[in-house]
Automatic annotation (TrEMBL):
Origin species: Fusarium xylarioides
Entry protein name: PiggyBac transposable element-derived protein domain-containing protein
Superkingdom field: Eukaryota
Transmembrane segments: none
Residue span, PiggyBac transposable element-derived protein domain: 35-237
Length: 268
């Protein structure tokens, strides 16, 4: 089995257990748009349905979710927008992204895209509910968002790439002999890089000082309980580090928190 998780800054907000025998079925969601001529039924595949299910387990609030291209599609983002969630993510060629962006990405992979570095193209969906982007970094990035229009820029430090493949030529030309530049780049790209890897951060923290033995293959019960225990350790560590804590001193080293927590549990 696998675990679908939603997290913020490494803190696991919630998760769903998944096994091939019990997958989430495709969701048919009826959207209430003002355009009466539009087809108001969107069908999401089981993987995309996971995103909707996880977000609906959270406390009612306004959320902005960042997704990788396993989940992202213009249709999913329309559904999330209708339900009150903002979304930003990278797109695959078969995600339903605009055909012009597919052609540009194909040219970029072949090293035949004549774009300069940091060039941006914005294309809204036909209903103007989702903005689609093609942005030239070291490679051409295809992204979509219901939160950004692409005109928001932020100053960022970029480093000259070390590789010399054809896709990197515009980037190396922009740098010249400079090892780094401060440039204005789209805010959606900066925020995506900052917030996208929250689950990965949590998984990385879980891997530190973890079990010294392996769980046998097929031992799903032990793995499940082990996962829950690790999440408790990591979440409490992040809460005392970033939130309100009664401790006289916040513990910044995860290993010290593990030791303090285990000592307190044993002595209780």
């Amino acid at each position: 089995f696998k675990i679908w998780a939603i997290a913020e800054g490494g803190y696991f907000l919630n998760w769903l257990w998944h096994s091939p025998q019990h997958i989430l079925t495709s969701s048919q969601l009826h959207l209430q748009f003002q355009a009466s001529s539009a087809d108001n039924t969107i069908t999401l595949n089981p993987t995309q349905s996971v995103v909707v299910s996880l977000l609906n387990t959270l406390r009612k609030a306004t959320y902005h979710v960042f997704l990788d291209n396993l989940f992202s599609s213009p249709n999913l983002f329309r559904v999330l927008r209708e339900q009150g969630f903002a979304a930003t993510g990278t797109l695959r060629l078969n995600s339903g992204v605009h055909c012009n962006l597919v052609e540009l990405k194909t040219l970029d992979r072949k090293g035949r895209l004549l774009w300069h570095w940091n060039q941006l193209l914005r294309l809204p969906t036909a209903d103007h509910l989702v903005m689609q982007f093609a942005w030239k970094d070291s490679k051409l990035m295809l992204m979509a968002s219901t939160n950004y229009n692409g005109l928001e820029l932020v100053q960022a430090i970029r480093h000259r790439p070390s590789t010399e493949d054809r896709q990197n030529r515009p980037l190396r030309a922009a740098f010249g002999d400079d090892p780094e530049l401060i440039v204005a780049i789209p805010e959606f790209a900066v925020d995506y890089n900052n917030y996208m890897n929250s689950v990965d951060r949590g998984d990385q923290l879980r891997s530190y000082d973890s079990w010294s033995h392996r769980s046998r293959r097929g031992g799903w019960s032990a793995i499940a309980w082990g996962y829950l225990l690790e999440v408790i350790v990591i979440n409490t560590y992040l809460l005392q580090l970033r939130g309100q804590s009664d401790l006289p001193k916040r513990l910044t080293v995860l290993k010290k928190w593990r030791s303090k927590l285990s000592t307190a549990l044993i002595s209780t």
